[in-house]
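HUMAN: Mind sharing a backbone?

ASSISTANT:
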Amino acid sequence: MPGEANKKQKREEYRKSLSKEQQKSALPKKKFYRQRAHANPFSDHSLTYPTIPAHMDWASHYPAFVAKDEKSEEATSLLQEDTPAVQKLLKAVEIADIGCGFGGLLFALAPRFPKTLLVGMEIRTSVTEFVQEKIRAMRNQNMSRGEYQNVACLRANTMKFLPNFFTKGQLSKIFLCFPDPHFKTRKHKARIVSTTLNSEYAYVLRPGGVVYTITDVEDLHNWIVEHFVAHPSFERVREEEQENDVCVQVMRTETEEGKKVERNGGHKFVACFRRLEDPPWP
């Protein structure tokens, strides 16, 4: 697309205008990475994804957490006999921000969970590149403190490939922040919350883990609540517990869409859902 090519050219011109030292730690400018707000999750997007979670090369995204000792128990447990030669991590990714946008939530949570690996998953190419560039810059800016080594961003279509990245019960938190409302009834099948997709969230989320949701569209909020409450693997978190959760506080204020809603005086509807223990087999 001509517009996208023009943005890439301007990004390159901007980088060349900086010194080598500045290039290492200069934050990317959003104006060079703007893209349509929504993407069709049913389209083919030339995506790269692992055939199974054990084939995922997480080490390239979290170099500070690469296991020097190949016998790391948690890392080894994710691998299978047919696993290609990939470096192992000291720990597994635990927090996923699905549809992370420009990464506001990721960058706010990373210092609060310094020992936990977080990943943002975004379908839009330019937006993904922005977050990846910002991670690189933030790591360089905070090299002495070792901050932001625990955050990464992937271009991915989670509606199609979520179980390709994560093993059963791997995640402790999933964030669904300001998803596309798909207002038209015929578009509801593209909503990020559905009976089928909730089963995939239940698969990758460990018992006791939480799905965090926030939207400024009340109809979508009601849809989300209805579908999670109806699912046998989830229960809604009580409001008192929800409001005391630091993740909810961050989610309300740090996402790009959340700030936009705040500026426009809109309402934010929050609902959290806890993964229940699986019932025993008969």
The chain has one domain: 2-275. The mean pLDDT is 87. The longest strand covers residues 205-215. The two ends are 56 Å apart (CA to CA).
